[in-house]
Amino acid sequence: MPTKRILICSTPVGPLGSGVGGGVELTLHSLVLGLSGRGHHVEVVAPEGSLHVGARVHQIPGSYQVSSQTESRDAAIAMPPSPVLGAMWEWVRLHQQHYDIVLNLAYDWLPWFLTPFLQVPVAHLVSMASVNDAMDVALTELVVARPGSVAVHSFAQAETFPAVTERLRVLGNGIAVERYDLHATADEPRTLGFIGRISPEKGIDDVFAVAAATGLTVKAWGLMQHPSCWQAAQAAFPTASVSYEGFLPTDELQFAIGGCAAVLMTPKWVEAFGNVAIEAMACGVPVIAYRRGGPAEIVIDGETGFLVEPDDVAGLVDAVRRLSEIDRAVCRQQVVERYSTDAMAMRVDAWFDDLIRSNRRADASS
Ligand code: UDP
Fold first, then answer.
1. Is this structure's pTM higher than 0.90?
2. For a Cys-Cys bond, which of 34, 81, 114, 136 suits 341, CB 3.0-4.6 Å?
3. Does the Cβ of 174 fall within 6 Å of ligand 1?
4. What is the CATH number of domain 5-174+340-365?
5. CA atoms of 366 and 361, how far apart (whole Å)
C-alpha cells in the first residue's frame, strides 16, 4: 500500500501530557513514531494545551469528557456544555478529505455513532474493557455497521464485549523501546515499583499490603487521581513503606523505574492492556501481576515475571521471594520482539489497509 495520510484523534478527557488520558497518551505517541517511521504522513487532533508529539497537533478548545472508568454500568451517555469531543469531531468532519484514514483513540459514544455519517474510513482502537451498558450497545452497532473497524489491545479485553468478541481485531500495543535502557541489575537495597493512576481500579491497597508483608519499600509513580484511595490504603497498612514519587514524563519515568526489583500490577478491573508492564520490562524490570486482563497476556510466568491469582496478596509476596529466577535481559528482549513501535505500527498498518479496502468495496457496491 502507498503512503497514507493518517489523522489520529486523541482522547477528550484532557490534553496530551496531562496524564489524565492514561495509557492512551503513550499509545498515541508510539503510533505517531511507528506510523511515521513506515513513511506515512501523520497528524493529530487533541484537546488544546496538548504537548508536541512529533507530528502536527491540531489543538481544539472545549470542555473535557469525564473518564469512563469512573462511570457506573447503567450511566447514560453524557457530554458537558461546549464539549471538546464534539469540537474535535466537527474538525474531523470539515477536514476529512485531506486524510485516507482517521484513527480514533477515544472511548466515547460520539465518534462510534458518527462513523457511518463520515466519508473517510474511521478505525477505532478501543482502550478500555467493557465498563458501561450504553457503550456496549454502541460498540455492537458500530461493529455491525462497519465490520473490521474496531480493534482492541488484548484477548481478555475483547472477551468483555461478548456480543462482538470474535469481530474485534487484537493488536497488543507498542512503545519506543529505544527510549528505555536495560538495567541489568536491581538497585540495593531492593525496592519494588508501582506505576499507574492512583484510582480504585488500579488496586493500590494490595500494593500497600505487599509492602507491609515483605518489609520492602514500594515506590509509586502516577497521577494522583483519587487521593482518598491512597489515604485509605495508608490507614489500612500503617507499617507499609510506600513512597509517592509523583507523575513523571516518560523519559524520567523509565530512568526512575529501572532500578526496581519488580513492578507490581494489581488491577481490580480487566486492564485492557497495561502499558506499564511493557515499559517496566523494556528496562529489564520483571512484572508481578494478577492473572487478569492484558498483563496476563504480556507476562510469561516464570520468565518475564510472575502471574498470581487475582486478589491473592500472599501469592504476590511469594512471587517477590522468587525474583532471582528472572533474567532481566529476557524481559527486555520480549518487548523488543513483540512490543516495539515498529511491531505495533506494522499490525496497525495492516489493519488500516484491510479497512480502506473494505470501505472501497462497500462504496463500489452502493
Ligand atoms: N505514566 C507516566 N508517568 C508516570 C506514571 C505513569 O507517564 O509517572 C504513564 C505510563 O507511561 C503509561 C500510563 O501512564 O503509559 C498508564 O497506562 P496504563 O495502560 O498502564 O493504564 P491506564 O491509565 O491507561 O489505565
1. yes
2. 34
3. no
4. 3.40.50.2000
5. 9
